[in-house]
Specification:
By secondary structure, this protein is of the alpha/beta class. Helix content is 38%, strand content 15%. The longest helix has 20 residues.
Amino acid sequence: MRILVTGANGQIGSELVEVLRERHGTGQVVGLDLNPPPMATDQPSRAPSSNAPFEVADVRNREALADVLDRHEVGSIYHLASLLSATGEQHPDRAWDVNMSGLKTILDLARSRPVEKVFWPSSIAVFGPTTPREDTPQNTVLDPTTMYGVTKRSGELLCRYYHRRYDLDVRSLRYPGLLSYKTAPGGGTTDYAIDMLTQAAAGRDYTCFLKPDTRLPMMYMPDAIQGTLALMDADADALSVRDSYNTGGLSFSPEELAATIQARVPSFSCSYAPDERQHIAENWPSSVNDDAARTDWGWAPEYDLEATTADMLDHLREGAPEHGDIAEGEHKSATA
């Protein structure tokens, strides 16, 4: 049985596909996105080999997805295709359609086939202004203020419903902002951190679109991938959460990241010009409690802010692949 990854060209999807192919074999992992994968001339490290299966399709197209699942004999699905927070506010109707219609299509098709497990990512965007901002509990008030957050909370409830009603093994994490040197940000409010590090590595200053003291949960991509795989590897009976697990990694503000960068790049300077994304960030937690994930399936991130900053800067300076242009399409991996 093969593995299907939707949103395979996105920030999470592109890296998850690589790791899954290393683990299970290139031919066992099928990528799917609205567009073909980047070519070798654009991003050599992400270009597929000749035997790497890839499908170009819209996750809202039930017939096309059914054909992919049947033709490739898919046994597990990582459904990552989504519109993110800032992009979703610009196109709320499309965000609802892509995020919710795509998820329901996947769940409907999975429950009528021999699909063992489905992974779907949620986000800290499910929290809101009345949610405790510090050490946000696993079970708490959820009042999202963005269409992205609304779709993520609705998706959590839908996943839990399909587990209870149809016994479909759906698993989920609430990702914080994700940092990666390999791919471009995809329209998220936390993307300032990647931009800041990229500019610093290139010897340029940076103007941040959030206020300097806006602390948000973050995570380095290797931890996100490791956590995703650990959750999918866990025994189903050990899982006590069937909407979505809180997962914490880092928690820092723009000024804290800037100071950490300046310790390695003394010439770097950061200024601040908050825009509409500041309002989104102010409704999210500054840190989350992830005790349930740690207890149930051994969640344990490895990277702190210093280690993340050092590794990001090292790779960016070494001429790691340039952040490719990811169009404002539907199949970006979900983060915040």
